[in-house]
């Protein structure tokens, strides 16, 4: 075999290899076969004579080569025709020895195969211009997967180029006109960033065909800054441009810019500007920013009303503020004084709005003396509508027995004025919680605030002078008579004089100043004795005893009397009730409940006494006798009435009044120490789930403190 033919063979192999690596093997296209004669033959696959020929179905290279008469013949001869199929040459690939590739004439396949193999083995198979040897079929291994090229920073480089075109005003196809400023730009870039421009340029509207687009009501510098942002993705936010940027970004529907501007304004909130940001967010439809600004205003309302922004608000905005339940204020008098300050800032213009705005003040919740002063105030004296509102509030105070019928939005306390709910201690999964949590109605959230100095179970808690008094209980080994006082403002504990008697399972309540510790168990026997704490003398004294010993008793104050409800007497749970009159120092039996209850929660609302949950079985069979039922006692008729039951049974449930709703906190359902909390609305007779405790607990003492 000549050197020229050897060189020709290698070139053909390299061509075939390149074709195979660049294109997936497939059958030749007859329509263009005459132009692909270098790689394809119209002849059939040949497998005779024991020689393996390439086949598109089972070999990497599906190709049949030309005659190897000479290189000149190859170059000069036109694409076949052939006289007969016997003249069709074949390209052989030997899989066994991988010795190389050869051209064979069909008539001499068997004789030439051995000779060509030897010649191929002795040859270096080099190209005329390369020293690399095609030594084996490994150089022609098939590609096992597609390869893709990913340019680094392609998008960044492309936009840098586009920015350069913008800077030099090259290839621009639209001009944005804002005021006296003309801003050339590229439709493609604007549309890719802004949904506003995308809708404008990709739909059949007039602006899509205009070379100049007038941007009405858009600040020119803000528009230019946002056009630059479309090319660079960068934007400088400053206090002096943030409002223009946000309003323009809202128009152009640049959601990322809107979000960034809103976050910037959230960080700038202050009592001096929160009202303006709140109004601006409302006008722009930025709901998240409006919500944050509104909450900030409500939380810091006492500081907000001292700033100029409040005095400059229109009457419509003042009405929105006064209607809110969420403002953080100590009492309703604060709101009334803020309204009067606003009216006096421009008395001539604002006097006409006074009666409309006064209707948003919860006048029935003001002190009677405060209402009397209002009646004689010159601002209200000559206004008939204001006088009607003042008389309505006075009637609420003069006719307390009619208050259930006088309920209205003006008799509903604002959330911050009702105080904070505290849940103290109780039994948990660790057999004794020392933690204290508080619940705020405005935030609907429980937060850990403190820990008791030691573990207490079946103790009592009362509020005296806005301080929590933790009384008696047991520590797991012995029954206690100790008393501790927690100040929620200073977050400090102090030790108080102990009771005369060790008690756990007692009830504690404050009546007309003194605090009472009722019943319980001293570790040996059930108690009917009652002690009273005199805060002036700082000592405990006994008062009249109950008619029945009671432990795990529920106590509450109603109409100047102390009520002891249910409990256990050592043999069974009780359904009897008795009340103590401090003026006569006597206990009197009342109507019995319909069910026996130990571990019952008791509270009062609007002249009624409520008994909630508990159990009515011996200790050996608590699970099957837990109670979810609720009864209401009317002292005028001496009758108990069933009302809506809780969603689940709760033994040792903590119960307290917060605002105009009753709260059932935690408890035990027979298997779990509950962290769930539900509130009862006496006006609708419905229970509603509220935020859960941080820790599941039963027997927690729950009280309300005004901070």
UniProtKB/TrEMBL annotation:
Listed Pfam families: BACK, Beta-prop_ATRN-LZTR1, BTB
Keyword DNA repair attached: no
Region (Disordered): 107-139
Any one of the GO CC terms: cytoskeleton
Low complexity bias spans: 121-136
Compartments where found: Cytoplasm, Cytoskeleton
Gene Ontology terms, MF aspect: actin binding
Domain BTB: 172-239
UniProt keywords, alphabetically: Actin-binding, Cytoplasm, Cytoskeleton, Kelch repeat, Repeat
Transmembrane annotation, as ranges: none
Family matches, as PANTHER family: KELCH-LIKE PROTEIN 32, LD33804P
Protein name stated in the entry: Kelch like family member 5
Organism: Anas zonorhyncha (Eastern spot-billed duck)
Lineage, uppermost ranks: Eukaryota, Metazoa, Chordata, Craniata, Vertebrata
């Amino acid at each position: 075999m000549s050197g020229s033919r050897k060189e020709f063979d290698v070139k053909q192999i390299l061509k075939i290899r390149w074709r195979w690596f660049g294109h997936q093997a497939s059958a030749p296209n007859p329509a263009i076969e005459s132009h692909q004669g270098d790689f394809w033959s119209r002849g059939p696959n040949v497998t005779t004579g024991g020689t393996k020929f390439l086949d598109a179905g089972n070999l990497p290279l599906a190709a049949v080569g030309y005659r190897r008469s000479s290189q000149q013949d190859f170059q000069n001869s036109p694409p076949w025709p052939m006289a007969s199929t016997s003249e069709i040459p074949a390209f052989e690939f030997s899989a066994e020895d991988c010795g190389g590739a050869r051209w064979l004439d069909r008539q001499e396949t068997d004789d030439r195969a051995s000779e060509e193999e030897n010649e191929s083995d002795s040859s270096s198979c080099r190209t005329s211009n390369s020293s690399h040897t095609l030594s084996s079929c490994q150089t022609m291994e098939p590609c096992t997967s597609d390869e893709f090229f990913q340019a680094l920073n392609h998008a960044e480089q492309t936009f840098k180029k586009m920015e350069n075109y913008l800077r030099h005003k090259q290839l621009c196809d639209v001009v944005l006109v804002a005021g006296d400023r003309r801003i050339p730009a590229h439709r493609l870039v604007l549309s890719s960033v802004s949904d506003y421009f995308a809708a404008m340029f990709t739909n059949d509207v007039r602006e899509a065909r205009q070379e100049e687009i007038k941007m009405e009501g858009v600040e020119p510098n803000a528009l230019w800054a946002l056009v630059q942002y479309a090319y660079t993705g960068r934007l400088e936010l400053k206090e002096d441009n943030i409002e223009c940027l946000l309003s323009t970004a809202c128009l152009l529907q640049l959601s990322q810019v809107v979000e960034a501007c809103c976050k910037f304004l959230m960080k700038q909130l202050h009592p001096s500007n929160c009202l303006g940001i709140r109004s601006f967010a409302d006008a722009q439809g930025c709901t998240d920013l409006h919500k944050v600004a509104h909450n900030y205003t409500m939380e810091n309302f006492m500081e907000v009303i001292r700033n100029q922004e409040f005095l400059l608000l229109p009457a419509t905005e003042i009405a929105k503020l006064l209607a809110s339940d969420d403002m953080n204020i100590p009492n309703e008098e604060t709101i009334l004084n803020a309204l009067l300050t606003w009216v006096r800032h421009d008395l001539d213009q604002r006097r006409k709005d006074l009666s409309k705005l006064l209707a948003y003040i919860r006048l029935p919740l003001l002190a009677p003396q405060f209402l009397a002063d209002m009646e004689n105030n010159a601002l209200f004296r000559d206004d008939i509508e204001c006088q009607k509102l003042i008389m309505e509030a006075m009637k609420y105070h003069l006719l307390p027995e009619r208050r259930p019928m006088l309920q209205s939005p003006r008799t509903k306390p604002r959330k911050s004025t009702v105080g904070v709910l505290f849940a103290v201690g109780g039994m948990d999964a660790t057999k004794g919680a020392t933690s204290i949590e508080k619940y705020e109605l405005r935030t609907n959230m429980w937060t850990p605030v403190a820990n008791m100095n030691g573990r207490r179970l079946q103790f009592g808690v009362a509020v005296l002078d806005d301080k929590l008094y933790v009384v008696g209980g047991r520590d797991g080994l012995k029954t206690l008579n100790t008393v501790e006082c927690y100040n929620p403002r200073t977050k400090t504990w102090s030790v108080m004089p102990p009771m005369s008697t060790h008690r756990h399972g007692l009830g504690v309540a404050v009546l007309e100043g003194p605090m009472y510790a009722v019943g319980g168990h001293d570790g040996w026997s059930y108690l009917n004795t009652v002690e009273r704490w005199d805060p002036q003398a700082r000592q405990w004294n006994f008062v009249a005893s109950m008619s029945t010993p009671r432990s795990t008793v529920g106590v509450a104050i109603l109409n100047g009397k102390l009520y002891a409800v249910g409990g256990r007497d050592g043999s069974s749970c009780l359904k009897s009730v008795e009340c103590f009159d401090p003026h006569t120092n006597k206990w009197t039996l009342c109507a019995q409940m319909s069910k026996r209850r130990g571990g019952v929660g008791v509270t009062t609302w609007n002249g009624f006494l409520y008994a909630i949950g508990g159990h009515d079985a011996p200790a050996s069979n608590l699970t099957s006798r837990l109670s979810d039922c609720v009864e209401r006692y009317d002292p005028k008729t001496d009758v108990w009435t069933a009302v809506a039951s809780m969603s689940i049974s709760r033994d040792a449930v903590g119960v307290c009044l917060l605002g105009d709703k009753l709260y059932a906190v935690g408890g035990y359902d027979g298997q779990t120490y509950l962290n769930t909390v539900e509130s009862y609305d006496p006006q609708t007779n419905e229970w509603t789930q509220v935020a859960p405790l941080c820790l599941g607990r039963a027997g927690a003492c729950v009280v309300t403190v005004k901070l």
